[in-house]
Amino acid sequence: MAKAILTTKVTPTYDDLPEVRYHFPKTYLNQVQAAVGDSIIYYEPRRSSGELSSRGGRQSYFAVARISAVEPDPARGDHYYACITDYLEFDRAVPFSEGQTYFERGLRKADGSTNKGMFGRAVRTIPDDEFDLILATGFAPELRVRPWSEQPAGGPYSGGLAEDQAPFDAGPPRPMVQTTLLRPFRDEAFRRHVRAAYDNRCAFSGLKLINGGGRPEVQAAHIRPVASDGPDSTRNGLALSGTLHWMFDRGLVSLDDDYRILRAKSLPEDVSRLIVSSGQALIPADEISRPHQGFLRFHRENVFKG
Question: Of 150, 164, 171, 253, which alpha carbon lies 20 to 30 A from 179's?
């Protein structure tokens, strides 16, 4: 097995849904097959779509996941799908370089310039130490490491941890990767990401309640439930108050593809008063954080009692 970087765009040229599948041409088949069973990191390039003139991509690593299998594309004989599990966004997007330091050493030429040929490869294998450093930087608050900008000059990990680093096991999974697979870690990261995307405001009621300790009362709801292989992605999340979260999980309310709030016929009228009068859910301004139509469709077809 081998870890890898997979490049995907906000508006992908390929049939990508990063939380679920990664679509790629046969050119990269060997590299992707080598990563089956191992972890990958997603990278977003400068171009946000397939158009050569497009801009706006973050040029950053933004999520970690695992490849469980590779399947041929039934519609295109020279393309394949990598089946994705355990998707989790970083707490902060990690730029490919800071100053003259590149997180992937292979992207930097000896003269200090960017290796555009290597950068142009949509799938790149990556050594464990570079993978771990990107992961640790992306989850700095949770893994208790200092950001890259505060790392000492002695090396990528020398003094970088807020406490002594636990020794790695002889074989995979490595401790940092293993940590990101633990349910408590993922629940907390998902809650933090969804709350931030919705500015701690309930998407259905519009209320923003902060308790006496300064903590938001809004909860993070999975649209496609974890029990049904729903990913820990902001696009699979909604910020909801406790009551509306309960109603959403039990299919009493849902969303259509235009983010209009749907109500089950059995929903009492007095309960309906909890919902914003416009009937339009409050969603993030940032397009990449909005609920994905595929997850909304799953909720309507499998959970909603409309």
Answer: 150
Q: What is the mean pLDDT of residues 39-50?
A: 79
Helices (H) and strands (E) in the chain, counts: 9, 12
Q: For position 212, what pLDDT does the model report?
A: 75
Q: 41: which strand partners?
A: 5, 64
Q: Using CA of residue 292, residue 294, residue 298, residue 304, what is the dihedral sign?
A: positive
Q: How many CA atoms lie within 13 A of 166 on its CB side?
A: 11
Q: Distance between the two ends of the chain, CA-based, in angstroms?
A: 46
Answer yes or no: are the C-beta atoms of 37 and 66 closer than 8 Å.
yes
Instruction: Report the greatest alpha carbon distance in the chain.
Output: 69
pLDDT tens-digit series, residues 194-208? 999 999 999 999 999
Cα torsion through 282, 287, 291, 296, rounded to 10: 110
Quick one: 106 exposed, middle or buried, by C-beta within 10 A (0-12, 13-18, 19+)? middle
Nearest CA to 94 out of 118, 62, 129 is that of 62
For CA atoms 7, 13, 14, 15, the dihedral sign is positive
- In this prediction the pTM is 0.83
Q: Residue length, the chain? A: 306
Mean pLDDT check: name the lowest of 32-41, 114-123, 280-289. 114-123
Whole-number pLDDT of residue 52: 41
Is residue 160 classed as helix, strand or coil in its secondary structure?
coil
Q: Can you tell me the distance from the alpha carbon of 98 to that of 267, in angstroms, rounded to the nearest whole number?
A: 53
C-alpha 182: how far from its chain's center?
Answer: 15
- Enter the tokens of residue 167: 């020794």
143 vs 133: CA distance, rounded Å = 11
Tokens of 112: 């200090």
Position 107 confidence tier, pLDDT thresholds 50, 70, 90: confident
SS3 assignment, position 171: coil
Contacts of 90 (CB under 8 A, 6+ apart): 61, 62, 63, 64, 138, 139
> Which residues, in sequence order, are bridge partners of residue 216?
210
